[in-house]
Amino acid sequence: MRHLNAHRKLGRTSEHRMSLLRNLATSLINARDERIITTVPKAKELRPFVERAITLAKRAGALSGDEAVAQALHLRRQAATFFHAGNGSRSESAARGRKQSEIPRTAGVAALKRLFGELGKRYAERPGGYTRIIRLGHRDGDNAELAIIELVGNPRELAATAPKKSAGKAGKKSAKAGAKAETSSADSTKKEGSGGRRSKKTQKTAAEQESE
After folding, report:
1. pLDDT tens digits, residue range 119-174?
2. Domain span at residue 206?
3. Residue 111 lies in a domain
4. Across the chain, which distance is largest between two alpha carbons, in Å?
5. Do 137 and 166 share a structural domain?
6. Do 68 and 149 sit in the same domain of this protein?
């Protein structure tokens, strides 16, 4: 029987494994390209882990009614367990000192803020499958299989699809312009040819008149 074999242990204790997944989820959400490179077993364990957090953000964005604020706060606190706590609450010394510089947010708090501010709205109409795994091959040294795990609809993906449409439109415009140029050149050559024939005819008639 497969009791207690639901997940990969990754050669770590429960505390170490949970800390690893929290760090990977934080790096994935805070990454500029919204993608990170890791091993295939870690990517497969990270995928359902981070997608549950995104689902909580989606549910918070779809709330409405009188208790929406309280329920959204509850969902936000549930999603905070997927990241390290960081400096979510300001210390008393920082609050007392008016001239003291503001303490920067840690990566976990920044990831939670971005999760509920941007990603929840992006995937509001998507019924799941927020991440993608792309295999890269084996790593030199330990021969571990590497993979890219990225968020669907990331800026890199949108930038890759945008130039294709514009290039297609530009190609069509250039083709139309080339066709127009060819037709105009053909018309000009026809006119020149017809003009030459007329000039020859007029020369013949003048020569015949002189001979008469």
Report:
1. 999 999 999 899 999 999 999 999 999 999 999 988 888 888 876 655 555 556 66
2. 156-212
3. yes
4. 121
5. no
6. yes
